[in-house]
Amino acid sequence: MAGTGVFEDIIDGEVFKYYTEGEWKKSASGKSVAIINPTTRTTQYKVQACTQEEVNKVMESAKIAQKQWAKTPLWKRAELLHKAAAILKEHKAPIADCLVKEIAKPAKDSVTEVVRSGDLISYCAEEGVRILGEGKFLVSDSFPGNERTKYCLTSKIPLGVVLAIPPFNYPVNLAVSKIGPALIAGNSLVLKPPTQGAVACLHMVQCFHLAGFPKGLINCVTGKGSEIGDFLTMHPGVNCISFTGGDTGVAISKKAGMVPLQMELGGKDACIVLEDADLDLVAANIIKGGFSYSGQRCTAVKVVLVMESVADALVEKVNAKVAKLKVGPPEDNCDITPVVSESSANFIEGLAKDAKTKGATFCQEYKREGNLIWPLLLDNVRPDMRIAWEEPFGPIVPVIRINSIEEGIHHCNASNFGLQGCVFTSDINKAILISDAMETGTVQINSAPARGPDHFPFQGLKDSGIGSQGITNSINMMTKIKSTVINLPTPTYTMG
Ligand SMILES: NC(=O)C1=CN([C@@H]2O[C@H](COP(=O)(O)OP(=O)(O)OC[C@H]3O[C@@H](n4cnc5c(N)ncnc54)[C@H](OP(=O)(O)O)[C@@H]3O)[C@@H](O)[C@H]2O)C=CC1
Ligand SMILES: O=C(O)[C@H](O)COP(=O)(O)O
C-alpha cells in the first residue's frame, strides 16, 4: 500500500508531499495534481502542485548542500549510494505496485524496473569511484617549443545543481539514471518526476532519505510539467538539465540557459530484415521489441522494413505470436496493458485510422476498450501514412515491404529521429555495413533495440536527443574539467 510503513511520512491525508531540506513538506499552494490510474481511469493518487516560491527555496537549498557534498570523499558518496540501492530493492514491492497503478506497467516488469534501478545506482557508485578517482597529468614539453617547466593537473569537478526530469514510462529507472551519476559526481539534485509515475518516484526518494544523504542534497518537486516545468528549466539556480521524454525536450533545449543538456527524446526505431535472416528470431524480437509495455518504450521497434521476398513468411510468424499475447490489466501480468492516458490512446487511434483510410492491411481488427488497445500489426504500410513516420508509443507496429537494402536504409535515415535501430541477417559483413549506414545512436544486430544494460552508452541522434546516457557517459557529462598548472623556474626531467 502506497504511503505506508517506512513510507508513511511521505503522505499527508490523501496527498503525497514534496521533498526538500531532508523533510517531506506540504505545498503552500493548497493545490494538488490527480494521478489517473490508466486501467480504472479514476484518480489513484494526488501529489502537491508546488509553487514557484517553493522551487526557489529548493534551488537555494540544493545549492548550499552541493558545496558541502563536493567535499565529501568519493568512498563516502559511494557508500551512501549503495545504501540507497539496497533500501530501494528491499522495498521493491510497494514501489512496483505504484508503477502498476500509475502507469499500468505489468506487475513483473514493474518489479524488474525497481531492481534494475537499484543495480544501476550501485554500478554508478563503483564506476564513479573509479573514473572520478583519477585525473590527467600533462607536461609542457610535449608541445613544440616548450621545455618541461609546466605540470598540468586536471580533474573532473561537479557542475552544481542538476535538474532531473524523467518520463512516465520508466519513472524510477530513468530518474536514478540521472540521480546516481549526479550524486557520485558531487552534484546536488532537483527531481521533477512525471505526473504519471510521481508517487513511485516519491517512494524512491524516500529510500535515498532513509540511506542518510545530507539535507538539501536531494530534492523532489511535484506538479504538472506544463505548469511548473518552464520555471524549473529556466531557473538560474540550475547548472545542468538531464531530461528524458518527448518533444518537450526540444522546447526545453531552446529555453534553457548556458547549461549542459542531456536529452533523451523520442524514437522511430527501424527493424531492417534481410532475406537471409532467421525469421523465427525476427518474429520473437518484433514481439518483444514492438509490444513490450504496450510499445511505450522509446527503444521499441517502431517500423519493420522487410525484404519483399520474405515478408509474407515473417508477417505470418508475427501474427501467430500476436494472437498469443495476453491483453488485460497490469495486475495480471498481461503482455498488453492500458496505455498511460486517454490522450495517448486517442493519438494511437488516430494513427490507426489514418493507416486504414490510406489502405494499410490490418492483420488484426482494431479494438479498444478505454485506454486498452489490442495489439495491431499493420502490413503493406506506405510512406504516405502517418504511422510510417510518427511514434505511436502504443501497441501498433507498421510493416513496410522493401526491395533493396538501400531502400531500408533510406527510410530509416529519412526519419527525424535517430535513437536506435536493428538489423537481422546471417551475414555479419552486411550487418556492419548496414549498421554503419544507419544514422542512429545505436544499432542492434540480430536483436531488438534496447537501452539496457544500463552501463552501455545510450544516445539519440537528430531529434532523438543531445549527448549520451549510460552510466559512465552520464557521470562524465555531469562534471567539468578543472586544471591546475604548476610553473617551475627551470626545466626538470624525472630521472629513473
Ligand atoms: N529517448 C528516451 O529514452 C525516451 C523518450 N521518451 C519519449 O517521451 C514521450 C513519452 O514520454 P512522456 O513522459 O509523455 O514525455 P513528455 O515529454 O510529455 O514528459 C517528459 C517529462 O517532462 C515533463 N514536462 C512536461 N512539460 C514540461 C516542461 N514544459 N518543462 C519541463 N518538464 C516538462 C513531464 O512532466 P509531466 O508528466 O508532469 O507532464 C515529464 O516528467 C515519447 O515521445 C517517448 O518516445 C520517453 C521515454 C524515454
Ligand atoms: O525510455 C525508454 O523507453 C527506455 O529508455 C527503454 O529502455 P529499455 O530499452 O531498456 O526498455
From TrEMBL:
Signal peptide range in chain numbering: none
Pfam families reported in the protein's UniProt record: Aldedh
Enzyme class: oxidoreductase
Family the entry assigns: Belongs to the aldehyde dehydrogenase family.
UniProt keyword terms in alphabetical order: Cytoplasm, NADP, Oxidoreductase
Residues of the Aldehyde dehydrogenase domain: 24-483
UniProt-listed Enzyme Commission number(s): 1.2.1.9
Keyword Lipid metabolism belongs to the record: no
Cellular component terms per the entry's GO annotation: cytoplasm
Spans through the membrane: none
Protein name stated in the entry: NADP-dependent glyceraldehyde-3-phosphate dehydrogenase
Compartments, as annotated in UniProt: Cytoplasm
Tagged with keyword NADP: yes
InterPro entries the record matches: Ald_DH/histidinol_DH, Ald_DH_C, Ald_DH_CS_CYS, Ald_DH_CS_GLU, Ald_DH_N, Aldehyde_DH_dom, ALDH-related_metabolic_enz
Catalytic reaction annotation: D-glyceraldehyde 3-phosphate + NADP(+) + H2O = (2R)-3-phosphoglycerate + NADPH + 2 H(+)
Species this chain originates from: Artemisia annua
GO molecular function, one term: glyceraldehyde-3-phosphate dehydrogenase (NADP+) (non-phosphorylating) activity
Active site: E264
